[in-house]
């Protein structure tokens, strides 16, 4: 059993290595950091990623430093639904195996900052740095890259040379947290509910700021953190009984009578928009699923064909959420509007139980306040 120490006796300092593949890993990391900050406002975070700084400025109240660092490759995306496999393999070849001098330099910086733990979502670089720095590493995931790349070996055999290397790296993590919906269950130290950032303001306040009345249907359209073009916007303007809020729909905020386009970087907090909606249309990505799960609103989702994690994510959606499947081609053509009445008829779902971010934070904080702090098995 871990012996607890007084939070006042330590200077809580945590490093976080975050995959830059989309915004989902950043969103999950922010949810965990936010929950840790609620447990102990003195905790400071050192964030390593190329997810843009504004994303963390908008999501976090906890104190943090930000170092723009490529911590992971993941996939190169042509669009939110299409992967560029040849370019992905080329970048993997450039990045792995990680240069030892780079690991040594990062580890020295971690020790200088006084970081007591390194959290990794799902960057294996953080695990390597933690090992060199002599501090515990905690892997947080619902899939790992080695498992995901296995699904592409037939189409792109060159990716196979990275699978065993990455698998061994992930197995070196001192502690392991899996977050639902989990793609491949393992002997993790903790499995949590979905991990999502919490909304900050009420549905009424969000709608007032958007100029949408409480009795009008609001549908949000979102494709996550990868830039996208929405060719169906003209169709939405014809559906006057519904107000559509399109996240990432324009580089500048603009609106018409029933169409509001919001840039990815705006004053609106994504979870607030989800919670203020009557339904959400979008890609079935992790952070979007997690936010909609807690908001309890119906989800019109576009499956990501060829993505190995899609089967697990879609199974979770069908089991735990009110949802309607949308065809990718129909989505871009705007034909999904014919399914909108069916989606809006689905009742909202009330959630009971724990927030996954709180579960993860309590586990991490228990390790952080251990006396003496040590890596698992040592």
Quick structural gist:
The protein has 378 residues and is an alpha/beta fold. The chain folds into 2 domains: 7-197 and 356-368, 3-Layer(aba) Sandwich (Rossmann fold); 203-345, Rossmann fold. Helices cover 37% and strands 19% of the residues.
What does this protein look like?
By secondary structure, the protein is α/β, with parallel strands linked by helices. The protein folds into 2 domains: 204 residues, Rossmann fold, CATH 3.40.50; 143 residues, Rossmann fold, CATH 3.40.50.2000. Helix content is 37%, strand content 19%. The protein is built from 15 helices and 16 strands. The strands form 3 sheets. A 7-stranded parallel β-sheet has the order 3-2-1-6-7-8-9. Strands 12-13-11-10-14-15-16 form a 7-stranded mixed β-sheet. A two-stranded antiparallel sheet has the order 4-5. Helix 4 crosses helix 5. It is globular, with a radius of gyration of 21 Å. The N terminus is likely disordered.
Secondary-structure map:
Layout: E1 13-18, H1 24-39, E2 44-49, H2 53-59, E3 64-68, E4 77-79, E5 82-83, H3 85-95, H4 100-113, E6 117-121, H5 124-133, E7 137-141, H6 145-150, H7 160-171, E8 175-179, E9 190-192, H8 203-210, E10 217-222, H9 233-236, E11 242-247, E12 254-255, E13 259-262, H10 270-276, E14 279-283, H11 286-295, E15 299-302, H12 310-320, E16 323-325, H13 328-333, H14 340-345, H15 356-368
Parallel strand pairs: 1-2, 1-6, 2-3, 6-7, 7-8, 8-9, 10-11, 10-14, 11-13, 14-15, 15-16
Antiparallel strand pairs: 4-5, 12-13
Helix pairs in contact: 1-15, 4-5, 8-10
